[in-house]
Amino acid sequence: MATDYYAVLGVRRDASQEEIKKAFRRLARELHPDVNPDPKTQERFKEINAAYEVLSDPQKKQVYDLGGDPLSQAGAGAGAGGFGAGGFGNFSDIMDAFFGTASQRGPRSRTRRGQDAMIRIEVELDEAAFGTTKDIQVDTAIVCSTCSGEGAAPGTSAQTCDMCRGRGEVSQVTRSFLGQVMTSRPCPQCQGFGTVVPNPCPECAGDGRVRSRRTLTVKIPAGVDNGTRIQLAGEGEVGPGGGPAGDLYVEIHELPHPTFQRRGDDLHCTVTIPMTAAALGTKVPLETLDGLEEVDIRPGTQSGQSIPLHGRGVTHLRGGGRGDLVVHVEVQTPTKLDVEQERLLRELAKLRGEERPQGQFQPGQQGLFSRLKDAFNGR
Ligand SMILES: [Zn+2]
Ligand SMILES: [Zn+2]
């Protein structure tokens, strides 16, 4: 008989399946090629795999116990187990083929970067137009001061996990159609950290961080718009284990203005004037973002015409300068004329030869389109 499989695994001949499994797992952890790449150890690793393949399989074990070596019987009873003892050599290749090479080795750190946080704030139009500073309340995780983010109660410390011996993962041999395949999974005792914290910090329950509310002063630049996000680096959530904080994003929500509607950096409003004022011209007071101004309505202004006030809009977020304030004029036709008013209007119509006007018809909605075009061209 070539090999004493019981001796290879270091178990008695009457060892139970449980004992065999245990012995194999212990050795596999020690001798796994990923832990110990030394060729001699790899040879040993193959041996224990072969031993386990035989002793864990009741049929093969029986053959072996009766003096045979099931692994030396080339092909006999191998079935689909094409990678029996002989083909077991290139273990890493099998691993890579089935589990990818991306599997992370070694324990994962307890320290991780924290998440980004987001907070919405409301600003008035003039605040968006000119910029402002705002105090905001933020509620994020900060480093626990009791344990300085370590997660261990004061006077204690994290200890190496005895289940995975600090590796953070445990290996397991499973049987597949390829023969035996070793898989690794995060250590269930330490969740892959490689260390355990026997006495977690009472303040943060071992997380290394606590929630805290604080006030931040945020500078809001001129020109922000609905949905603009201001990034405050490192003001987000502190990570587990005292990891670096994520960023805080402050998202702008612009409140509607009673008079002005914003389109890009231009502001629009509509002023309604009587027909007579449109014909004769007038000045209309308007409370702009820059204070009270007089909008000059020239004689003969038509309904739908727009009057641009250049540079009275919102500051451009990039590059400076400002958009325009566009005043759209709506001319109101007088209604409910009394006797005297009607007489005067009829007289005016007579003087202007407009008693029976022909009207000027245009195709489709040309009038409306040209008006809209005027509005956008600021004419
Ligand atoms: Zn703590
Ligand atoms: Zn562990």
UniProtKB/TrEMBL annotation:
One of its GO terms (biological process) is response to heat. Participates actively in the response to hyperosmotic and heat shock by preventing the aggregation of stress-denatured proteins and by disaggregating proteins, also in an autonomous, DnaK-independent fashion. Unfolded proteins bind initially to DnaJ; upon interaction with the DnaJ-bound protein, DnaK hydrolyzes its bound ATP, resulting in the formation of a stable complex. GrpE releases ADP from DnaK; ATP binding to DnaK triggers the release of the substrate protein, thus completing the reaction cycle. A zinc finger (CR-type) spans 131-213. SMART domains: DnaJ (SM00271). Residues 358-367 have a biased composition (Low complexity). This is Chaperone protein DnaJ. The gene is dnaJ2. Residues 352-379 are annotated as: Disordered.
